[in-house]
């Protein structure tokens, strides 16, 4: 399956370039291959979700792309540099929002962001986002002198986004950024990312299928260290478009069948002798696609020599 290459890129200067290129990437810990011949490219401006069950290799892949780990083999290029050997200024071209930060809760928000801004400036970055403007952009302008530990979870995540965007990065990593959020705070976070990072390439590691479909135009699924699927949500759903799940109530209780021709089954249930009610036809959902791909790959891994 090929990924979609049409992008909603508002920064025309980046259109047509490639932010990430991975070819034959492998990562081995002892005798265990955590990543196996991984390969993909991400055009500049594209929003990509990386999905996979625990142990699939997502975290290792992200750490390699961020330059935190050196791969065992293969070629990796991020913004034109090999991540594990990139110059310091390259790091200011990246933004990272982790699942959680361990920092000094007594710091004031404004001081925290100014500290990060100073670090980028020392690395030679000139076009920094002014802290006061950034605080207004993340709707924390009236809290600059408030201590970080006094913030709610959603407000704390807004500080993380501000810290990640202060250098106006070309590539933004979001690692499970909404874990533990209630639906209202999660939607607020989505709106914040849309408004502030519309032209930025984003790699979004998540377990949340709704999040992947809502925020990303492309999904890469990892399992057992391999890329097992890569495409847009529409393309991935099309892999199960030939089947539908028909559910209904009968005198014997709830019934459910997976069929290729749902129309014929529904017609049979409506006109046939068996009484049926509460009919429901469900086309292939992204969750069904994901589970189907992972289960199929698990079976293949069991028989792989």
From TrEMBL:
The keyword Transport applies. Keywords: Antibiotic resistance, ATP-binding, Nucleotide-binding, Transport. It is found in: Cell membrane. GO terms for cellular component: plasma membrane. This is ABC transporter ATP-binding protein. GO terms for biological process: response to antibiotic. Its main location: membrane. GO terms for molecular function: ATP binding; ATP hydrolysis activity. InterPro entries: AAA+_ATPase (IPR003593), ABC_transporter-like_ATP-bd (IPR003439), ABC_transporter-like_CS (IPR017871), ABC_transporter_ATP-binding (IPR050763), P-loop_NTPase (IPR027417). It is a peripheral membrane protein. Residues 20-249 form the ABC transporter domain. PROSITE patterns: ABC_TRANSPORTER_1 (PS00211), ABC_TRANSPORTER_2 (PS50893).
């Amino acid at each position: 399956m090929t990924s979609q290459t049409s992008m909603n890129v508002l920064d025309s200067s980046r259109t047509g370039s490639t932010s990430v290129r991975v070819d034959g990437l492998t990562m081995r810990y002892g005798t265990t291959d955590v990543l196996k011949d991984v390969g993909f490219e991400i055009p500049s401006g594209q929003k990509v979700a990386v999905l996979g069950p625990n142990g699939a290799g997502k975290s290792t892949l992200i750490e390699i792309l961020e330059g935190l780990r050196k791969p065992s083999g293969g070629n990796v290029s991020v913004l034109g540099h090999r991540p594990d050997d990139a110059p310091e200024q390259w790091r200011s071209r990246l933004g990272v929002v982790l699942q959680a930060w361990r920092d000094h809760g007594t710091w004031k928000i404004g001081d925290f962001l100014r500290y990060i801004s100073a670090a980028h400036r020392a690395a030679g970055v000139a076009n920094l986002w002014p802290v006061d403007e950034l605080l207004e952009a993340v709707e924390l302008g009236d809290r600059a002198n408030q201590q970080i530990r006094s913030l709610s979870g959603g407000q704390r995540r807004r500080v993380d986004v501000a810290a990640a965007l202060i250098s106006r990065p070309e590539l933004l990593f979001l690692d499970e950024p909404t874990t533990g959020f209630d639906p209202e705070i999660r939607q607020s976070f989505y709106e914040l990312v849309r408004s502030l990072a519309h032209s930025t390439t984003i790699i979004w590691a998540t377990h949340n299928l709704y999040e992947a479909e809502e925020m990303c135009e492309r999904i890469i699924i990892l399992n057992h260290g391999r890329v097992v699927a890569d495409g847009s949500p529409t393309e991935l759903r099309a892999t199960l478009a030939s089947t539908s799940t028909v559910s209904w109530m009968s005198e014997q209780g709830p019934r459910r069948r997976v069929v290729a021709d749902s129309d014929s089954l529904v017609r049979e249930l409506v006109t046939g002798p068996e009484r049926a009610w509460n009919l429901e036809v469900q086309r292939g959902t992204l969750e069904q696609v994901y589970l189907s791909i992972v289960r199929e790959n698990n079976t293949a891994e069991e028989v792989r020599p």
